[in-house]
Amino acid sequence: MTGARTATPRRVLSALFVVACALCVGLALVPLAFVLFFVVSQGVQSLNLDFFTHNPRPVGEPGGGMANAIVGTLFLTGLAAAMAVPIGILSGVYLSEYRGSRFASAVRFAADTLNGVPSIVVGVFAYAVVVLPLRHFSTLAGGFALGVMMIPIITRTTEELLLLVPNALREGALALGATRARAVFTVIVPAALPGIITGVVLALARIAGETAPLLFTSFNNRFFSTSLTQPISSITVQVFTYAISPYEDWHRQAWAGALVLVTIVLVCSMAARYAAARVASIRGQ
Amino acid sequence: MRSSDFAFRVGVGAFAAALLLIVVAIAVTLANDSSLSIQKFGLRFWGTSDWDPVAGEFGALPFIWGTLYSSVLALLIATPVALGIAVFISELCPDALRAPLIFLTELLAAIPSIVYGLWGIFVLVPAVRAVEVAMPESLRALPLFSGPPLGVGMFAAALILAVMVVPFTSAIAREVLRTVPASQREAAYALGATRFEAIRAAMFFARTGIIGAVMLGFGRALGETMAVTMVIGNNPQVSLSLFAPQYTMAAVLANEFTEAADALYLSALIEIGLVLFVITLFVNMLSRALIWSMARQASPRPAVLVARGAEA
Amino acid sequence: MNKILKRYLALALTAAVAGACGGGNTEPVTANSSSGSGTSQTLQINGAGATFPYPIYSKWFSEYNTLHPNIRVNYQSIGSGGGIQQVINQTVFFGATDGPMTDEQLKAAPGRLLHFPTVLGAVVPVYNIAGVSAELKFTGPVLADIYLGKIKKWNDPAIAKLNPGVTLPATDVTVVHRSDGSGTTYIFVDYLSKVSPEFKSQVGVSTSVKWPTGVGGKGNEGVSGLVTQSPGSIGYVELIYALQNKIPFGSVQNAAGEFVKASVDAVTKAAAAAAPNMPADFRVSITNAQGPGAYPISSFTWLLLYEEPRDNAAGKAMVDFMRWALTDGQKYASDLGYAPLPASVVMLEQATLDRIKVS
C-alpha cells in the first residue's frame, strides 16, 4: 500500500545486481574489442596487392605473400564441404524422419560425441587413416579432417530444422500419394533449405578457422598447389608458423593473415544469418 | 512399407551409418594405436611426471594436471561473466540492445582460435608479464604466484581459455533461461520480489541446465589447442603457480606428434589423445544430460528441440 | 527428389573434376612427388626436418627453383625429430637433421637411409638481460649448470667470475629450450654432456631430452622468439637466428681454453680436425673440437635420403640438387652464417651420391 520506492537493502541489492550483469557484458566485450583492434590495426599495415598474389619468399627476403595459403584454405574448406554436406544433411534427414528408432538414437549420440571431439584428436585420427596409408601429407587428408569436424554441425542443424517444418506439409505430401523420398526431398527439405544452407555456411566459417587438424594432415607448402595428393598451405597453419617465428616481417604477415581469416569468417557468418533472416521474413515465419 | 520407402530408408540410413562409423573408427583407432603404451605403463602412465623420450619413460601426469588446472581456472573466471551476460541479455536488457549484444557475443565465439593465440603471444603475454613484474614481493612468495615473470604460463592460458569459453556458456545459459516458464517469474513478482530475487528464482529453477551450460564450456576448454599452445610455456611440470610454464594434453600432441621417433613414444602420445577423447566425451554427455533433463522439466515443447536449439 | 539429386550430383561431379584437373599435373599414385620425366611437368618434392639449417635450405630451394622452374622442393622446418620420423614413415621424400640418426632409428626405416652433410653451423647461447649489452663469456660447465637449474641468478659467482667487467643484475635466469625434437638440442646437449658428467648422467644426449628446468619454444624460431620477449632469459639457437634477429650471444670456452665467439671461420676450424677422420656414413660429432680457434658448439647438418628411392624422378632430382648444393650452393653459406663443407668431405659425398639408385 505504501508503494514508495524506498531504497531498502533488497532494492539496493537488486540494483547492484543489474549493474554487475551489465559490467559482465562490458567485461566480455573488452577482449573482443582488444582482439579486433589489434588484428585490424596490425593487419591492415601489411595488406597489399603482393600479399594476395605472391607466395612466401625465403627467410630474410622481404616481401612475398600468402596467396597460396588463401587458395589453400578455400580449397580445403570446399573439399570438407563436399564430404560433409551429403553425409550431414542426409544423416539429419534420417534422424528427423525415423526419430524413434534405436539406430537413430545411436547416430544422434555419435553426432553429439563427434561434435565434442577436440580438433587435435581429429587431426591424429586423420593422420592415422589417411596420411600413413597413403604415405603423403595431402590436401585430401586435410579436407578429410575438416570434413569430419563439419559433419555433426550440419547433421544437428538439419535435424532440428526439419523437425520445425510443420507436420501439415509432410502429411499433405503423403496424402497426395508421394513416396517418402519424394515427400522429403521435394517438400520438406526445400521448406527448411534456407536454414540448412545457413547451417552449412556457418559450419564452413567455423572450420575455415581451424588449425590443429591441419598440422599433420595437409601440413604446409611454400608453393602454390592445388593437387589433392600434395601438402597444401592454409591461412591458419601459415599464421601459426609465422607467429612463433622470430622474424619481424613474418609477424606482420601473420597479423595480415589473421585479418583475412577473421574477415572471411565474419563475413560468412553475417551473410548467412542475414540471408536466413530475410528468407524468414519473406516467408512470414 | 512400399519398396521405394524401404530403399529411401536404407539409402539415407547409409549416410547416417557413415557418421556412426566415423565415430567408432576414431575410438577404435585411438585405442588400437595406444595399446603398446597402455600395456607397458598401465595406470602408472597417469601417476608419474617423468616425460622422458630418451629413456622411454612416459608419465603423463603433468599434461592432465595442466589441462584440468587451466580449464578449471578458465571456468572460475568465465562462469560468472557468462552467467551475467546471459542474465543481462535475457532478462534485463532493453529490447533494442538485445540483438546487437547477441551478435557481439557470437562474434567472440566466431573468432578462430589461432587469432586468439596470435593476440595472446603479442598482446596478452607481455601484459601478463608486466602484471607479474609489478606484483609485490610478499605476494610473489606464495606458491600460487611463485616463479620468474615469463608472461607465458598457466595464468595467460587460463585467461585466453576464459575468453573463448564465455560465449559458449552464455549462449546456452541464455537458452536455458528462456525455457523457464513465465509462471515462475510471475509468481515471484506477485510475491513482491525485486528483479534480483525473481531472476534468482528463475536461475534456481534452471539450475541443472545452467550447470550443464557450465560443463559444456568446461568441455570446450579441455580440448582447446592452438591458443593454449602458444601461451602456456610448454613445460611438462606439475605446479600450483599461476606463473609457471606448464603443458596440456592438446598442446603436447600438437608439438610432439610429428616427431615421435619410435613406436612407444607415438603410442604414448596417442594414449594421451585417447584420454582426451574419453574425458571430453564424458563431460559433454553429462552436460547434455543435464540440459535435457532441465528442459524436459520446464517446457511442453519437445525437450530435444530446446536442447538442440541451445547448442545451435 | 530427382531434380535436387541431379543438381547435387552435377555439382559434386564438377567439383571433383575441377579438383582433379587442378591436380592434373601430378600423379596421385606415387609417393610425395609427381612423376613425369619431362621438364615440362612440375615435380614437387616434399621434405621436412631441422630448423637449424632452415634459412639456408629455404634460400637453396628458392634459388634451385629459379634455375629449374619445374622442380619445387617444399621443405617444412618441423624439427630434426620430425624430419627423422617422417622420413622413416615415408610421408616425406627426404628428411633433414642436425642430430645424426641412431642405429635403432636407422633399423626402423624401411630402406637404407644415407646421411649427407650439407653445411656446418654453430649453436650459440643467446641471452636477454636488461641493462647488459656486453658480450658475456661462458664455459661449458657453467652452461651445463644453468641448464641443470643449479645456477639460478645472473649474478651467480660462477658467471660473474668469467665476466669481471660486467655488472650482472640479480634477476632470475629463465632457461629456454626446445619443446620439439631438435637437432639443435642434440648438438647442444652433446657438447654439454662432453664437458659435464653430471649433465650427461642427468639429461643425456638425444633430439628430445627431459629438461630439468625451463620454458619450451617450438623450433629455433620459437626459442629466439621467447628469448627476445623474456627479459632475463637464456637460450640456444643456430647462429643465423641470433644474427638475423640481432639477439646478443656469448662466447664459449673451447677445449684449448680460449673464449671463442661463433663465426664461419671458427666453425670451419672445428670441422678441420674432423675432416680427415670422417666415417663412411658421415655421422660424426665435432662438438668440443680440439685445436686453436675452433668453436666448441659446432656441427654438421645432414640431409637424409634413401639409397633406393621409391620415386625415380624425385630421386634423380634430389641427387642433382645435392650435387648443386655441394658445389654452387656452398657459396651462399657464409652470408647466412654457415660454414661451407671442407673439400675432402664434398669429394666423399659426391662418391656416396653415386650409390643412390636412380636411372
Element layout with pairings:
The complex is a heterotrimer of chains A (285), B (312) and C (359).
Chain A lengths: L8 H38 L2 H5 L13 H31 L4 H15 L2 H16 L4 H26 L2 H9 L4 H29 L3 H4 L19 H9 L4 H35 L3
Helix pairs in contact in A: 1-11, 3-6, 3-8, 3-10, 4-6, 5-6, 6-8, 7-8, 8-11, 10-11
Chain B lengths: L2 H31 L1 H7 L9 E2 L4 E2 L2 H32 L2 H16 L2 H22 L2 H4 L13 H25 L3 H9 L4 H11 L1 H17 L2 H6 L17 H8 L6 H36 L4 H9 L1
Antiparallel strand pairs in B: 1-2
Helix pairs in contact in B: 1-13, 2-13, 3-7, 3-10, 4-7, 5-7, 7-10, 7-14, 8-9, 10-13, 12-13, 13-14
Chain C lengths: L1 H21 L20 E7 L4 H14 L3 E7 L2 H10 L4 E4 L5 H6 L4 E16 L8 E2 L1 H9 L8 H6 L11 E5 L4 H13 L1 H6 L12 E3 L1 H11 L3 E6 H6 L6 E3 L5 E2 L3 H11 L23 E9 L5 H15 L16 H11 L6
Parallel strand pairs in C: 1-2, 1-3, 5-9, 6-7, 6-8
Antiparallel strand pairs in C: 3-11, 4-8, 4-11, 9-10
Helix pairs in contact in C: 5-7, 12-13
Detailed description of the structure:
The complex is a heterotrimer of chains A (285), B (312) and C (359). Chain A is an all-alpha fold and 285 residues long. Chain A has eleven helices and no strands. The longest helix of chain A has 38 residues, at 9-46. The radius of gyration of chain A is 24 Å and the shape is globular. Chain A starts with 8 loop residues before the first helix and ends with a helix. Chain B is mainly α and 312 residues long. Chain B contains 14 helices and two strands, in the order H-H-E-E-H-H-H-H-H-H-H-H-H-H-H-H. In chain B, a hairpin with a 4-residue loop joins strand 1 and strand 2. Chain B is globular. Chain B starts with a helix and ends with a helix. The mean pLDDT of chain B is 86. Chain C has 359 residues and is an alpha/beta fold. Helix content of chain C is 39%, strand content 18%. Chain C has an eight-stranded mixed sheet. In chain C, a hairpin with a 5-residue loop joins strand 9 (251-253) and strand 10. The N and C termini of chain C lie far apart (56 Å). Chains A and B meet through helix 1, helix 3, helix 4, helix 5 and helix 6 of A and helix 1, helix 3, helix 4, helix 5 and helix 7 of B.
